[in-house]
Design brief:
coiled coil; CCHC-type domain-containing protein; two-stranded antiparallel sheet; mainly alpha; about 5% strand
Length: about 650
């Protein structure tokens, strides 16, 4: 029976819901009726029916209901038709009793108002009102639950969409990974094929390497033979190079003579162009020109012959040297000396390398100090700029006070007021302090008052900025030519060729500078004297009878002398040149050996400076040149041949 009742109740509930949803005019009435139907009483009855069916074992346990299944069933719309029988039952059971109760309540109110008596109907009505309040509260609760369920449903839909999007992403990633797997499999197959081909190539390369090793052994033996031949050829080439240098030297001398002759011929042509006179003078000039051309042709032919003779003589000398090559033992001795000197030089270079590393470390420390000083300088400049701005502001304020403003004199750098400024207020010197005295007035003290009197002159800030020396002005000063030496890069006060001594520099340095400048001048004078003497000796040999008459007529003596020197110059003796060259080379080698011995002896003896008075045994000081003080080793056998080494030579 319980089962039948529950089913009937369910059918009635469904019928009521469908009827009110279709026939109600407003949403408020629908909600109220729906709330009355879904009351806890109906839920209790359903629970009791389910428990009875479970205890009897007639009905199986229901499956668990999930939120998703509820949402899906909720979206399904059940089309139920409302019959007139259902409508009549609802009106009889619910609507008519409600209207009857309202009519009773109205009658009870009228009675109570007339007779002042509370009837039982009022109590029943209050009870019914209480029940209606409870039912309305339950309806509100159910509405809230419905709203919560709707929110959950929307959240579930959003989560479903998010999960679906994630699933799509995962599917895309899976497809991409499958593609990459296929690509990797294909690459593995390709790499296996390439590995097999490389293994075959490696085997072939190993075979080729073995063949090349055998060839390398043969080539190494051939290379050793070629090295021996190269050493022999180098010795021959050195000899030929020495002879070629000699020939180049004499060729340069001949070219110098030709240049001199060319310059004089240019002068002759210029003089001929400047000549003006009768036809006889022009004829004489033409004759002279023809004679000069003939002589030049003769000179060129003679020069060619001399060159050919010199080449033949050098060839004969070279053949003679190769035939009489008996200097192998001397070369071995020189090689031993060279090795010994190389070892000593390596030791010296190692010591110098250590000194260089120490100097580098010192340079790094000085660079760090310089960077720190630059930073400080920048900070000071910034602070200076700030102070200048403050001073400008203060001066702008002070200008309002007029005569009471304190100003700074640009001549004596002293503050003053305009009201106290007289013609004798400013005292200054016309010249500058040179470290010893003032040249303007002869005062010896630096802080003596000035010898020139005048008014104070104020210094404006704009004038200060204009008068400040800039880098561009200094560069322009250094780009100008020095008036004493006509060179660029220094001021006249810093000229190294100035013969006068300076007062603001140490006297020893000034004496050394003056001595060096004097030596340079003497050296240049000696060179010019040698050149002039050679030219004069060449001019003395120019004596021909035919040219004397022309020289007396025209007066071109220098051209005649050059011409005669070219004609009457003696032939070149190659053997004498070779002797001079050998003597010169021996003297140069001796000087180099003495210099290396001097440097080694200085380092071993521990000579620190040229100003030290102590000298080791076997050395003497050259007292004639104190400015360039150095040691010269004494030859015990020949004390006169002491080698003097000077700084700068």
């Amino acid at each position: 029976m319980k089962k039948v009742v529950s089913q009937e109740n369910l059918i009635s509930l469904q019928s009521y819901r469908t009827f009110f949803e279709s026939t109600s005019e407003s949403s408020t009435n629908r909600n109220m009726i729906y709330k009355t139907i879904s009351t806890p009483l109906f839920e209790k009855r359903e629970k009791r029916s389910q428990l009875s069916t479970r205890s009897a074992g007639r009905i199986a346990s229901p499956s668990p209901v999930t939120i998703s299944s509820k949402i899906k069933n909720r979206n399904i719309h059940q089309d139920i038709q409302v019959t007139p029988e259902l409508a009549s039952q609802v009106i009889k059971q619910f609507l008519l009793p409600m209207f009857e109760a309202d009519g009773r309540n109205i009658a009870a109110k009228s009675r109570s108002s007339l007779f002042g008596v509370n009837s039982k109907e009022n109590s029943e009505r209050t009870a019914k009102c209480k029940l209606s309040d409870i039912i309305s509260k339950q309806l509100n609760m159910t509405n809230k639950e419905l709203e919560n369920l709707k929110n959950r449903w929307t959240d579930a839909e959003l989560e479903k969409k998010r999960i679906q999007a994630e699933i799509d992403e995962v599917k895309g990633n899976l497809i991409g990974s499958i593609c990459t797997l296929n690509n990797l499999k294909y690459q593995i197959q390709e790499t296996n094929k390439s590995m097999k081909s490389e293994q075959l190539n490696a085997s072939l390369v190993n075979q080729q390497i073995n063949e090349y090793r055998q060839l390398n052994i043969k080539k190494e033996a051939d290379r050793i033979e070629n090295i021996d031949q190269l050493n022999k050829e180098r010795i021959r080439n050195k000899m030929l190079g020495d002879k070629a240098n000699e020939l180049q030297h004499w060729n340069a001398a001949l070219q110098m003579q030709n240049d001199i002759m060319g310059e004089r011929l240019k002068g002759l042509y210029g003089a001929c162009e400047d000549l003006c006179g009768s036809e006889k003078s022009t004829e004489k000039i033409d004759n002279e020109h023809q004679i000069i051309r003939k002589r030049c042709d003769d000179l060129f032919g003679f020069w060619v012959k001399t060159e050919e003779d010199a080449l033949q003589t050098t060839k004969s000398c070279i053949e003679f040297i190769f035939q009489n090559d008996t200097t192998s033992t001397k070369r071995l001795g020189y090689r031993d000396e060279v090795r010994r000197l190389k070892n000593t030089m390596k030791e010296i270079l190692g010591a110098m390398g250590k000194k260089v590393s120490q100097a580098k470390d010192e340079r790094d420390t000085y660079e760090e100090k310089c960077s720190q000083m630059e930073k400080k300088f920048k900070e000071i400049n910034e602070s200076y700029a700030k102070v200048r701005l403050q001073i400008k502001e203060m001066n702008a304020k002070r200008k309002q006070f007029g005569l009471n403003e304190e100003k700074l004199c640009k001549n004596c750098n002293r503050p003053f007021f305009e009201k106290d400024n007289y013609n004798w207020s400013c005292l200054r010197h016309a010249g500058k302090w040179n470290g010893m005295m003032y040249w303007c007035c002869g005062n010896i003290k630096e802080d003596t008052p000035g010898c020139v009197t005048s008014k104070h002159e104020s210094r404006d800030e704009d004038e200060e900025e204009e008068n400040e020396p800039t880098e561009e002005i200094e560069k322009k000063k250094y780009n100008k030519r020095c008036p004493s030496c006509r060179e660029i890069g220094h001021l006249p006060s810093q000229c190294p060729k100035d013969p006068n001594a300076r007062s603001n520099v140490s006297q020893t340095e000034e004496l050394d500078r003056i001595v060096l400048a004097k030596r340079r001048r003497d050296r240049m004078g000696n060179m010019s004297n040698e050149v002039t003497s050679k030219l004069k000796s060449m001019n003395k040999l120019n004596q021909l009878g035919e040219i004397k008459t022309m020289r007396s007529n025209f007066g071109f003596e220098d051209i005649e002398e050059v011409r005669m020197a070219a004609v009457t110059s003696p032939p070149i003796n190659v053997f004498e040149i070779a002797k001079r060259k050998s003597e010169r080379s021996t003297t140069i080698k001796h000087r180099r050996l003495t210099r290396t011995n001097i440097s080694l002896s200085k380092e071993l003896a521990g000579i620190i400076d040229s100003n030290n008075e102590l000298t080791p045994k076997g050395y003497e000081l050259n007292s004639s040149r104190r400015s360039n003080l150095k040691l010269s080793p004494i030859d015990t056998k020949n004390p006169e041949t002491t080698c003097e080494t000077e700084k700068g030579y």
